[in-house]
Amino acid sequence: MAQPVFSLSGASFSYPGGIPALNDITLSFNGGERAAIIGANGTGKSTLLMLLDGLMFADKGTVCAFGKDLTEKFMRDPLVQREFRRRVGFVFQNPEVQLFCPTVREDVVFGPLQLGVDHRTIRLRLDAIADKMRISHLLDRSPHQLSIGEKKKAAIASMLIMEPEVLLLDEPTAGLDPQTTRDIIEVLDQAHSAGKTVVMATHDLHIVEDIADVVHVFGSERTVIRSGSAEEILADNPFLQANNLVHIHVHRHLNVKHTHPHDHGHTHGRDISSFR
Amino acid sequence: MPNRRLVRGGGFVERTILGTVSLLKETVSVERIAVRKGFLQHRDARFKCLAAALLLCAVLISKSVAELSVLYTAIICLALASSIGLLYFLERTMLFIPIFSLFIVIPAIFNAVTPGEPLVSFKLFAWDLSITRQGVDSAIIFFMRVLDSVSVAVLLVLTTRQQVLLRTLRVFRVPQLFVMTMGMSYRYIFLLLDVIQKTFVAIKSRVGYVSSTKQGRSLVASHMAGLWLRSYRLHSQVYDAMLARGYSGEAFVLDEFSARAADIVLLLIALSALIGTLWLNPFFR
Question: Is some CB atom of chain A closer than 8 A to the CB atom of B206?
Fold first, then answer.
């Protein structure tokens, strides 16, 4: 049986000023698992990922990573910090935050350089990852010259080059065109096939089935309200509607007003006979 | 009825938008030149910086208009060999600093500042003034020195990408922390410019043409705090992103420079210019 990579027990977190972000979270992520965290805006998905990456620490309860308590004191040890960063990679929601170097090349190699990987290995990894993410032609460009999709790809490359065991991704496909979304899903699929654990926060429900075996749904109380397989949760439309994850479409087909649940299998043809 | 003065003059908001857009355009055009196929673009940045430093030394020690003119001709030739249009180059090197320096140096041509052999004499109120040959010579030499120095600096900046130029500072033992901070500042200037531009467009879409300087200033003041908070939040997020990739206080970088024979040739040319100037100087005393 797979061992949990991360486990949270009664974890809560509030931002300065007492603004609650997470409330009594009990959850675990197993090694080699593909998990999606879904929820409406402001339900604490990003905060959870920050806790898992040891960038913030729970006010109450515990967060364990690889069997160790993830506390501020524990992460202060430089050797622990380096080992943890080597094992866990994080892609931020906003690529502007992640791409802070003057060129894409410098951004992509930043992680392995800090982790002390030798320069020859870094160059080999850079060639491979740039090829895989199709960003070779962008390496000498400044991040501000890239499109949002290119920025996302560069940000993911800057995490994958570190070859972490666990991939944490915050909305990696938000606002991207279908082809770029597909490219990113493919890369994550390959990472999972290579045995990596993938934990992703998203509200792109149409990609959840492709990228996750397990889904955890966060509700407005900023806690986990349901966990299960992607198939089971995505099939429960009333539950998704109640939690602001899908909506009812209201639109017109010629002169007929028509409503139906949000469903990507639905096609809008010219034949309206079935609505009359 | 729109206020005619406001419409005619263009408001603070419009000028800020135009300013940010023109800075972005200028940067992009400079970057385009830096990636063109030209002589200096293909040279190693370390050698280019050294060659520029040697040329600047030659300019500073030169004592005659003839020497400075030869150096200027050489700089123009280098610009042309680097696929930089002559007009574009002259526009960037002749205007502002050299012309401004010419105005500064005007008093030096008169006998009151530089006594010597009079070329033209005239009376101004109670003073007998004359323009002296020595004064004119020193003014021309000063102007030429400024022109040559500005041209060398502009040529270096136009033919080297900003990030490469920053990386070169490391070779000259500038602390990594300083270089990295400069690089990040350069990177985020564009992000903040983008934020400013969008903020002003949003303001303009709501307030329209009503944007006098006074109103503009008041709008800017009220949005400065917001912009500061945004940049503060961005700063802490960037720091988190650095931590997430293993940053622990000292940043390491990958230095990728490769020297070729032509780089050494460039350095030798610059060195010859310096030695030649030193050798010729005694003849122009």
Answer: no
